Amino acid sequence: MTKHELRYAANPVDARKYGTEELRKEFLVEAVFVQDEIRLTYSMYDRYIIGGVMPVSKDLTLETIPYLKSENFLDRRELGIVNVGGKGKVTVDGKEYELNKKEALYVGQGSKEVVFSNIGEGQPLFYINSAPAHKSFPTKKVGADEAEVVQLGDEKYANKRVLNKLIVNSIVETCQLQMGLTELLQGNVWNTMPAHTHSRRMEAYFYFDLEEGQTISHFMGEPQHTRHIFMENNQAVLSPEWSIHSGSGTSSYSFIWGMAGENLDYGDMDVCAPNELR
To answer: 3-state class of 8 per DSSP?
Structure first.
C-alpha cells in the first residue's frame, strides 16, 4: 500500500513569518515508517521525493503516484535506498539485493519493478529518496565497507562525527541524487556546524538511532533569520536551497542526508560562521 502527499515550495521571506505549526506542516515529515505501507512525500524542491518502506507481513512494491504521470515510478527518476533497520531485501526487476543496517542501494532510471521484503532477520526499515533523472545508470549496492568515510568535527565543539558517503559520484554514477549517512560519536550532539547553505541544491535530513524519550532541535531558515523544529526518532525534514540545515540533540544519533539539484559537487556550499547566525 502506497500513501503520498505533496509539499509546495516556500518563499524564504514568507517563511520568516511562520509559527511552530506552519513550520512543522511545511517542512517536517513525521510518519516516515508505517507497518506494511510505503509512505512518500513529493516536494516541489527539485521535485525530490522522500519516503519510508516498512514491510512487516508482506512484500511492498513501489508504485507510481499521480504527481509523476508515468506508468512506472522510475520511468523518469532515480532512487536511493538506505536500510536503517534489520536485514531486508530489495528486488529490482527480478534481481535480489540484501541490505544490512546502514547499507545502501542505488536504482537507476528506467527500472520497472522495485519490491521491498522482510526476510525475518529483524525488522527492515527502508528510507528512500528519489530525484528526476535524464539518463539510466546501473543499479548498484553500496555495502558498509564501500562507503567513502570522512572524520569530521571535534569533541571540543561537541560535533565529532563520522560521515559515510554512500550514493555519491565518487562511488556510484547518478544523474543528480546524492545520499550519505552521518553518525555522531557518543557525547557529541551537533551536526553540520558550522552551518551552510548551497543555493544550487536542496537537501533532506532523516534522523534515526535517537534514544527513546530524547529529541533533536533541527535548525533551518536563512542564516540571518533562523528557525527551529523539534524532532523525534525516525522523522525527516525538508531543507530548501536557501536554508541552513543543522541540528543538536539531547543525546547522540545518526542522520541520512539526501540532495538533488544543479550539480554533484559535494563541496559546493556557503559556510556560515557560528557567531554570524541570527
So the answer is: coil
- One-letter amino acid at 39 equals R
Q: In terms of residue numbers, what domain contains 207?
A: 2-276
Is the pTM higher than 0.85? The answer reads yes
Spatial neighbors of 83 by CB under 8 A, at least 6 apart, are 99, 100, 101, 102, 103, 104, 124, 125, 126, 127
pLDDT tens-digit map of 10-23 = 999 999 999 999 99
165-200, pLDDT tens digit by residue?
A: 999 999 999 999 999 999 999 999 999 999 999 999
Q: Which residues pair with 249 in a beta bridge?
A: 216
Tell whether 228 is in a known binding site.
Answer: no
Q: How confident is the model at residue 266 (pLDDT cuts 50, 70, 90)?
A: confident
Number of domains making up the chain: 1
Answer yes or no: is 218 a known binding residue: no
Q: Exposed (0-12), middle (13-18) or buried (19+): which is 4, by Cβ within 10 Å?
A: middle
**CATH code of residue 93:** 2.60.120.10
CA distance 149 to 163: 6
CB distance 253 to 209 below 8 Å: yes
203 is in an annotated binding site: yes
225 is in an annotated binding site: no
